[in-house]
Protein: HTH arsR-type domain-containing protein
Organism: Mizugakiibacter sediminis
Amino acid sequence: MARRERHDGKLEHPREVELLASPIRQEIVDTLEALGGEAPVAAIAAQLGRPADGLYYHLRLLAAGGLLDELPTDGDGRRYRTRSGGARLRLRYRPGATANARAVARVAAGMLRIAGRDFGAALGDPAVAVEGPRRALWASRTKGWVGAAELEEINRLLLRLGELLRRPRAPRRDRLLSLTWVLAPVAARPARRAAAPRRGRRSI
């Protein structure tokens, strides 16, 4: 099988971005990256807890779209490799009324659906740590005001979290976690004036 040109990992064209609007395809790519960028279908299926037969359709779409390479079959079955050669796939945003922006929004919505499923599944485990320095289950939402310095620090911390989670599996690093976050500017709304009480009615 001829080896195609390596993908730079940056997804911008709406057709490429739309491939990841499907949560299952996001999970396949995430799992493949967590397994080092190359793995047999059986290993991907085992990690996802899904039958391998149910993944082939999505794997073929990802390969046809240029995100994965299907490798020659060997002793452990069909294998796939990320076209980016180990670099994580990243979305390039083109804000505004663009096809890219609409596709990216659908991918983000898919990410949040996966996060909700992961959280709900973990919450059903009575042994999961929810307190202390090794807490493994956490959901939070914070909204507040920041300046340029705080925004730069937030970005540094988010990049650092990504670096920690991208480390390869090792004997003392064998627990799989998922982290999903959204950082978005919010337009501040002007305070609404209280309505004047109607005549003849008591204001409580």
Summary: The radius of gyration is 22 Å. The chain has six helices and five strands. The CA atoms of residues 84 and 199 lie 69 Å apart.
